[in-house]
Amino acid sequence: MTERWVPTTSHWGAYQATTDADGDVRVAPHPEDPAPSPLLRNVEGSARHPTRVARPAIRRSWLDNGPGPSANRGHEEFVEVDWDTALDLVAAQLDRVRGESGNEAIFGGSYGWSSAGRFHHAQSQLHRFLNTIGGYTASRNNYSFGTSQVLLPHVVGTVSSVLGYADSWETIRDNTDLIVAFGGLPTKNLSVTPGGVTRHTGAAAAADPGVEVAAISPLGADIPASGRWYSIAPGTDVAMQLALAHTLLAEDLHDTAFLQRYCTGFEVVAGYLRGDPDGVAKTPEWAAEICEIPAADIRELARRMAGGRTLVNVTWSLQRTEHGEQPVWAGILLAAMLGQIGLPGGGFGHGYGSMAEMGDSGPLLRLPTLSQGANPVRAFIPVARIADLLLSPGEEFQYNGQTRTYPDIRLVYWAGGNPFHHHQDLTRLRRAFARPETVVVHETHWTATARHADVVLPATTTLEREDLGAGRRDTHLTAMHRVLDPYAESRDDYSIFTALADRLGARHAFTEGRGARGWLEHLYESWRASLLDQGLEVPRFERFWELGRIELPEVAEQPPLRRFRQDPDSSPLHTPSGRIELFSATVDGFGYPDCPGHPAWLEPQHPRGGPLHLIANQPPTRLHSQGDVGAASMESKVDGREPVTLHPEDAAARGITEGAVVRLFNDRGACLAGARLSDRVRPGVVVLPTGAWFDPKPDPKRDGATVCAHGNPNVLTADLPSSRLSQGCAGQHAHVDVEPHDGPLPEITTRTPPPLGT
Ligand code: PGD
User: What pTM did the predictor assign?
Assistant: First the structure.
């Protein structure tokens, strides 16, 4: 029998899959992909890993004693039950809570990447379901660039004007003289984009963009081979950016005509650069003290920036920190002073090096989309405030100029995310998850979030269902064929919600009378009709399914900032002034000390927890926490634990050798990791990527505290926001100390399911 390879896609790109004689999945890269993602290697090992959730499972004391707050979450065995029992219990609790407290008491924000596929997107399915039964408390923005999502509308009118229309790497190669890359140009992030890409070209382009690069980062790994590395002290880019701006101003290298015609508020910022309000001129000498880049280098770079077409790029990681608005706004200030915003290959970039789609040249096309319906509940949280929400019902918080109140959450419903991977201060998150009466989680694997639930419903993976898939700026739409039968008793999120909707009298509202295949046809054909209205043609559904993928048609749309540049009066930005707001009266009017009305250097206020600066960045070997049990992720571990990279001087000072198990710790918690030594990390900095499955154990060194045996850095990060403006995730940085581990090594228990009773 010949193998039948079928097309599918994932957040790490399109690929092909088949099953072997034992029924195990085998994968191969997409034939047209010049640089398949290394993450593809995680698929085979994860698909049937022992940590797959096999049957509905219920936490023992929730089943025995009924719903209620419980500090036992994450510590207790589960009882496997049949689907009807589990669905009846979940439906009854949803009904009780909405009846007693209103739908606001249900948190359905459920942040997370889940899987590729336009229909079986777990978070969208959950939102659609909850909307059909009266709504839910939602979350806004994302962990990736949530700070920018709030800031950018104030400065340039919309998020998409910067992120949605980034120049392609080809345009950069053809037009740009110099990329000034704050945060470097990490290639490790460029195989991933939500929905995936078919042809990976970004990593090669970022590794060698064909133009001069000045790369500013504490991490040498994020610098292109041909780039010049400015080894900056972490969290101080704003000081350097302001000093570059000061040099442009002092040496009259700024474009006054551009600033007058296209911007507002430059005079306020210029006064700040000169030191009018605070007596501190933001000179290169001032900055050098903070960012530890020599003043002469800053001056020289400013002159080079003014000498040609310059792209100022700020990675998303820089805004995932305290005062994360500032490096973004200061980057826009620099690009505005150079007068190149809206010119091909010039101006401001945000996210080159952060995700594959930035710099991709695929068409900007609306993709088939499942409607989530309307949520009648008005309550929401900025996404990274999940622990505050659960711990502080009734408390007020600031967000983007509003004073809002946290509702009282009684039931948490999560599908397609792993907050015990993505959130900060996981010990605090455990306390927060002890508060609600019920926590329901749909998961493919026994992640830490599943282990902290009361009811775990086993979900299929993309390989076990049919879907349509493409990422933003992808070149193809993939017909995602089913490869494997559903694992054990797992079900699609859609069929789980259909069964719940049925129990709650909302079946038709949820399904509109369609099965999963019917939805695929419906979404595709509605999309095809809307393309036809634009004069674009794609084949009918049956043909698309047979072909396995179709090329997406080109659409000609001029980027908004190009139109703005051509005529700011007829194509103004959606800001109050219609111009780029280098000073925002709106933001200023909010009166937030942690986000004033113009870009500024603000002294860090988050408490320091140790002498070393921890960078908790995106992992090179998996997508967030997904695929942690797969081959690429497992091979990178040191003695089974996540690798932490230290400078040899910091290691020597602590008696740490290559490959040793070390303990990272601060006031919030501790984790174990395996030491890797590298002089491509700035002294004083340690790097522990996110995504090792959280493995909490009692810390023998501190009573009542938790040590993660596996190396999840979010036991060390602070659960504090970037600012009151955005309340964004600031988890990229923390302060820690590191020591050699002594005493018995705790076993890693994330790679087997939790205790399961009957
Ligand atoms: P994932 O590991 O992708 O992480 O956080 P996110 O929660 O998105 O989690 C997705 C989960 O969905 C996985 O557990 C997977 O098994 C599950 N899943 C996949 N497919 C399905 C499905 O079909 N159905 C169901 N029900 N479940 C499914 C990512 C977040 O982490 C992000 S985006 C960023 S940028 C943040 N970055 C940082 C950082 O820089 N530093 C720190 N310290 N922390 C961060 N956290 C953030």
Answer: 0.97
pLDDT at 1 over 50: no
The whole domain housing 741 covers 612-757
Neighbouring C-beta atoms of residue 738, cutoff 10 Å: 24
The answer to whether residues 660 and 574 belong to one domain is no
Task: Please indicate, yes or no, whether residues 317 and 194 belong to a single structural domain of this protein.
Answer: yes
CA distances from 95 to 91, 150, 430 (A): 6, 35, 26
Tell me the three state secondary structure of residue 696: strand
In total, how many domains does the chain have?
Answer: 3
- Is 574 part of a structural domain of the chain? yes
Q: Whose CA is nearest to atom 45 of ligand 1?
A: 422
Q: Distance from the CA of 419 to the center of ligand 1, in angstroms?
A: 7
- Same domain? For 253 and 355 the reply is yes
CATH number at residue 210: 3.40.228.10
Burial 522-532 (b: 16+ CB within 10 A, else e): bbbeebbeebe
Instruction: Return the biggest CA–CA distance within the chain.
Output: 80
Give the pocket of ligand 1 (CB within 6 Å). 112-115, 120, 122, 143-144, 320, 415-418, 421-422, 442-445, 447, 459, 493, 616-618, 623-626, 690, 713-714, 717, 729, 731-732
Burial status of residue 71 (CB atoms within 10 A of its CB: 0-12, 13-18, 19 or more): exposed
Ligand 1 midpoint to CA 418 (Å)? 5
C-alpha to C-alpha distance for 46 and 423, rounded to whole angstroms: 23
CA distance 226 to 185: 12
Strand pairing report for 411-415 and 476-480: unpaired
Which pairing describes strands 438-443 and 411-415: parallel, antiparallel, or unpaired?
parallel
Strands (E), 360-433: 380-382, 396-399, 402-405, 411-415
Q: In this predicted structure, what is the pLDDT of residue 2?
A: 56
CA distances from 282 to 199, 216, 248, 290 (A): 44, 18, 12, 11
Q: pLDDT digits over 377-433, tens only?
A: 999 999 999 999 999 999 999 999 999 999 999 999 999 999 999 999 999 999 999
Residue 424 lies in a domain: no
pLDDT over 80 (residue 249)? yes
